[in-house]
Amino acid sequence: MQTAIAPAPHTPQPGDHDYAVTGIDSRKLGMWGFLASECLFFGALITSHLLYRARAPIGVKTPHEVYDIPYTSVSSFVLLMSSLTMVLALAAIQRGDHRRLRIWLLATAFLGTVFIGGQVYEFTTFTKHGVNLSSSVAASSFFLLTGFHGVHVTVGILWLLSLVGISMRGKLPADKHLQVEIAGLYWHFVDVIWILIFTVIYLVPNNH
Amino acid sequence: MRRVAGRLRRLRWVAVPAALVFLASCASNAPQDTLKPHGTIARKEYHLFLGVFIVATLVFILVEGLLFATVARHRHRPGRPEPVQVHGNTKLEIGWTLLPALLLVGVAFPTIFTIFDVAKEPTKNVLPVEVYGHMWWWEYRYPTLNISTANELHIPVKTSVRLSLRTIEPGLPAAKGEDFAAGVIHSFWIPPLAGKQDVVPGRVNKLTIQADQPGTYKGQCAEYCNLSHANMRLRVISQTQQDFDAWVAQQARPVVKPESGDAAAGYALFTGRATCIGCHTMQGVQGATARVGPNLTHLMGRETFAGAMYDITPENLNRWIHDPSAMKPMRPDEGTGMPNLTKTGPHLTDAEINQLVAFLTTLK
Amino acid sequence: MAVAVTRAPARPFARPKSEHGFWSWISTVDHKRIGILYGVTAFLFFLIGGSEALLIRLQLAGPNGKVLSAEEYNQLFTMHGTTMIFLVVMPTAAAFGNYFVPILIGARDVAFPRLNAFGYWVFLAGGLFLYSSFLLGGAPNGGWFGYAPQTIGKFSPGHGIDFWLIGLVITGIGSLTAAANFIVTTLNLRAPGMTLMRMPVFVWMNLVVSFLLLFAIPVITVALFELYFDRNFGSNFFNANLGGDPVLWQHLFWLFGHPEVYILILPAMGIVSEVLPVFSRKPLFGYSVVVFSGIAIGFMGWGVWAHHMFAVGLGPVANSAFAASTMFIAVPTGVKIFNWLATTWGGDLRLKVAMLFALAFIGEFTIGGLSGVTHSIVPSDYQQTDTYYIVAHFHYVLFGGAILGLFSGVYYWFPAVTGKLLDEKLGKVHFWLMIIGLNLTFGPMHILGLQGQPRRTYQYPKGMGWEVWNGIETLGAFIIALSILAFIFNVMKTLRSGETAPPDPWDARTLEWTIPAPPPEYNFAEIPVVHARDDFWHRKYTEDENGRLVRIPAGGADDGHHGEAAHGDGHGHGIHMPSPSYFPALASLGIMVVGYGAVYLKTNHTWWLMAVGGVVMLAGVFGWGNEPLAEEH
Q1: CB contact under 8 A, A136 and C243
Q2: Class assignment of domain B126-250?
Q3: How much is the pLDDT for B13?
Q4: Do C190 and C264 meet the contact criterion of CB atoms below 8 Å apart?
């Protein structure tokens, strides 16, 4: 019986597609760049809301007056936990445990879905109180900000489910853990943005 | 010698046109010329500009001169040795970083001083006027004199006229708790007297204008307000205090109802079937205080109408009432502009329009 | 010869593999072909935008012009500005960046080849989307700056503005992805020895521009969405009637808009920084200073935005602060001018057409820069703003600056792309007609602005003293048009002729001249090892004790294909390049369909169209994600 010779580890050479002068994989660097631009995107949305948070016509409620902080705290906690499961998913693939990878990815997607469901329920409650996209600029800016955040979470959920599918087909081996890491970067970023939104928008008092 | 002559010959392509341009701009007859100030604020702004422009021209001559010089001197000629490979010169580079910076610091001081100076609230000899930008004409209300007019702003000489600028569209539904719907952004600009100030919904910007002598000055809206922005013109007529007071007294008078003839029929139409008072103020007529269109009570006291676009003549007024949008693009269907009253609403006939014009021409 | 591309296993949607023909262009992921696509498309938009300008000038040639109605004029000036900025200058810079950045840093391609293709297709989609508005009820008429509230609801009925909003969101996606791609490429794919301070200035400027785009595009995207919601879904971000503030639009727009103007000019400045040293036969004077001033402009450009808003009523303190910041951004700009002049001084100037354009850039851009400084004199700007004086300023920096710089790049790099030299005589005709035309068109605008002619006005009355200069400007515009015809004729004649250029025709300094022209798909047979800035030059020349050039004899000087990569068979066997893909184009198509759905969503309830577009887009994205970058052997 021949002894299997382990293949030499592939070191990227100049001209190779995965060559990286900075030592950081290009795909990871690209994701960081994208996240940097997302900071400006959410920054502009948050700034618009901070400008408008107290502006509503007389008799019309601002979002601040209808927040259910305990409820939103729970859904924020759910999203926070999803970052934990995402870390566990990455750890799983790095040690070659593909079953656990898929479980933790599904858990992350599930928690994200619960968060989105919670948002949907929260927003329908708001509309019952007369707080909707056109009721006031306070509400318009709130819904645009949280709406775009929700879109980002949804895109993330789709991404995670795709990774589960790829893994199930056997196309996500341990040496491709970077793909999970990059998805994780995106997911954690979306979570951090939510922490920011929850703190600045929900928790900071509105001196109406 | 030949090289110098060559250089000078090339320079004439720049020097002659530049001189022509400079002369042309001095010898112009442009009513909205910012380089011929007739008021205190415009003069301050002009002097500041002149100083900086002179500095800029000197820098221009230096840079363009160096450009021409380097081409003339260093263009390739056969047999020249390869050039010395200079990579830089730190002293020079520091120099041409610091020197412009210092120059700009010098320019910054008078600039900031004048910013504050021009923004100051005037304290002596002040006349407040409320300016309302509509799409696409100007309304003026004098709160201390209780009069209102349109497009042509009369002011007394040597008075600080403090304008409060607002934009409204009375033709559109107002928000709850507000008198009028806010309009779009305009900019009030009367170049001979002062630089412009934007008219912004949600704020009340201020502008001071002061004329040195009696005269008529032209200006126009200077912030794109869509369709007829080009046609939103204005005039400022500065008068001696005596003439101004007389004008104010006239503006305060209610309409004189014509006794007979076409003018009387026109009055009846104006206040009745033709629905004019639905949009236009006619002082003295019960309930005729609308501000959708200009106050017409003393129309003939003005030189122009339709946003100072047309001279006031019976022919022009007649054409206007027949088909306003043909003379000035507007959007009456959206509530911003005068509708066609022959095709819609009262369906006025030619005869009725003649009567209306006959009435309007009595409105001194 | 071409790189061998293997046959992929038979699948329902097989990987394209054609090298030639129409479909090869649709599926290409080669940065060079993508560069050509960007360049040709941008030039076509340049002709359209230029025609819009000619119509505008015809309307304004005399008082009370009757060539165009008010609505037609307003749509044309809106589209002229939007086209020139988003569909001409930015993509032309992208064309050069795409083609040359990888080669200049010694790489084979960009970091994300399919994302690169996607950036082009999304740009094309956005441009076509914007222009389809002419056929679908009318183009946008709110100006390229789209100030609220005249772009909302009753003040701007119809769908034109929605086409503008969604069209710019679409092109913005392309700019953003291109920016991320260039940043990663420049940081990660440099050849050994190519340190950051050895990179050509063009690569540096492209890097700064990419960072500017990365941060500026999201800001305008937020503004565009907010205005879209105001128009379609009853929000009130900019509606003062219901608590909104139109000035917020201006802040958001100009926070993007000012860095945008540096995005427009820095690539051309990069090109000029390449051309001047080559045709002066001397290095760039003060390379570090030129690079750092570019970076400084990038940073400082974020602090001046409200100089577009001096007349809005922000108050004397804000106005003073922005006056100061605006004055100071002139410093790094001026430094570049002086460094460029010093580069030419003492050189041996070869006045080829590429060099003429670069020299003219210095002269014309200076005029625009100086008038810009006069705008920072706030009380004087109260007279200048919104007049033709401003129109003069930005056309001098954008036409006299960016366009001239980009044409310099065209003449300089034409032989590197095609292996042919553009005709010098015709080039000089183009150059002189363009210089005369541009100065006749935009020079008098300074005077007209100071004499009180406002901008964005479809007509002006008699008796304002503006007739003569307006007439001259219209003449100037047609002279510019003639110059473009000379250019087109030159390109077509050159492409048809068989004459090839010698290798390294300009005796240049940088790596793109070390490879064959047109370059092979893999660019370098062997990745070069770089030892110095202007490495290629230093393989050809050294300096004597007086600092004068001395040619290095034999080996390196004449065929330019060598360097340290002299070994290797030079035919690229064994080099795996990324395989072509249809998915980037498919994804862009999907986005375009989503865009139409968004425009008609409120009035026609086109949720279904958005869903269809979404599915197509997702199909493109999933296909792209699932296929390998290159098919395995």
Answers
A1: yes
A2: mainly beta
A3: 57
A4: no
Task: Check if the beta carbon of residue A160 is closer than 8 Å to that of residue A208.
Answer: no
Domains of chain A (ranges, CATH numbers): 26-203 (1.20.120.80)
Q: Three-class SS of residue B212?
A: coil
CA separation, residue B237 to residues B160, B217, C66, C283 (Å)? 14, 6, 31, 62
B126-250 and B261-360 share one fold: yes
Chains that contact B by 3+ CB pairs under 8 Å?
A: A, C
- Using the Cβ of C245 and the Cβ atoms of chain A, whether some distance falls under 8 Å is answered with yes
Q: Assess: ipTM above 0.90.
A: yes
Q: Where are the domains of chain C?
A: 39-578, 584-633
H helical segments located in C497-545: 535-540
Which tokens in the block code for residue C49? 């935008």
Residue C397 has pLDDT above 90, yes or no: yes
C447 → chain B, closest CA residue: B25
Tens-digit pLDDT profile for residues B300-335: 999 999 999 999 999 999 999 999 999 999 999 999
Token pair of A125 as six digits: 């409650």
User: Measured in whole angstroms, how far is the alpha carbon of residue A161 from the centre of its chain?
Assistant: 14
Architecture of domain C39-578: Up-down Bundle (1.20)
Residue A30: list chain C partners with CB under 8 A. Answer: 111-112, 180-181, 183-184
Domain boundaries, chain B: 2-73+92-119, 126-250, 261-360
Half-sphere exposure of C445 (CA within 13 A, CB side): 30
Q: How far is CA C443 from CA B36, C264, C400, in A?
A: 20, 21, 11
Sites in chain A below the pLDDT cut of 70: 1-8, 207-208
Those residues with Cβ within 8 angstroms of residue C483's Cβ, 6 or more apart along the chain or in another chain: C429, C430, C431, C432, C433, C434, C437
Q: Whole-angstrom Cα distance, residue B232 to residue B135?
A: 8
Task: Check CB contact under 8 Å for A52 and C189.
Answer: no
- The beta-carbon neighbor of B329 closest among C69, C240, C465 is C69
**Quick check: C451 contacting A, CB < 8 Å?**
no
Measured between alpha carbons, how far is C532 from C511 in angstroms, rounded to an integer? 12
Residue matched to tokens 């001018």? C337
Residues of chain C contacting B118 with CB distance shorter than 8 Å? 379, 382
Residue C575: which pLDDT band, with cuts at 50, 70 and 90? confident
Is C199 in the A-facing interface, judged by CB distances under 8 Å? Answer: no
- Helices C353-375 and B40-74, interaxial angle, to 10°? 160
- For residues C405 and C271, is the Cβ–Cβ distance under 8 A? yes
Length of chain B: 364
Tokens of C78: 């809106």
Q: Which residue has the tokens 């080849």?
A: C113
Question: Which fold is adopted by the domain B261-360?
Answer: Immunoglobulin-like (2.60.40)
Structure pTM? 0.94
Nearest CA in chain B to C372: B56
Distance from C-alpha of B219 to C-alpha of B155, rounded to nearest angstrom: 15
DSSP-assigned beta bridge partners for residue B128: B162
Pairing of strands B205-209, B160-169: antiparallel
pLDDT of the residue at B27:
56
Q: What are the Cα distances from residue C232, in Å, to C220, C324, C373, C408?
A: 18, 39, 40, 44
pLDDT value of position C1: 36
Is some CB atom of chain B closer than 8 A to the CB atom of A58?
yes
What are the beta bridge partners of residue C568?
none
The C-alpha R_g of chain B, in whole angstroms, comes to: 28
Helices (H), C61-150: 70-82, 90-104, 113-132
Q: Any idea what the Cα angle at residue A169 is, between residues A166 and A175, rounded to 5°?
A: 65
> Which residue of chain B has the CA closest to A60?
B176
Q: Token pair 């002097």 is at which residue?
A: B47
Flag whether pLDDT at C266 surpasses 70. yes
Number of separate helices (H) and strands (E) present in chain C: 20, 2
